[in-house]
Specification:
mainly alpha; single chain; about 110 residues; about 55% helix
Length: about 110
Amino acid sequence: MLRWPGILLLALLSSGLMVSHAAVPRPALAVDNGAGQVPDLKQTLNYGLKARLPSEFAFIRHVNQLVEEKRLSRAVVLRTFTWARGQSDKMPFPYFQFALRAQAKKFGVQL
């Protein structure tokens, strides 16, 4: 005997209304802010990680400097940024800081 969730699932499958998670487009990290400017890495990290303390802003400045000097990969920073935001909507910065330090250590960069 089918239960209501099973019936609902069958109805959605037969109507073609189910969309796979992979098919849903993800928003870009750098979005035009309306003034025709795309935020740089430092702005993206400050706002996306919800930095509030002077030590957090200093860490982000240091990370940005390492990326500009090509001592740290921008791709690694953005991948860690995306991961940290997925861990916590309210306070992603601690996750970012911990994970990026671990990633940078693999490349011989101390944060």
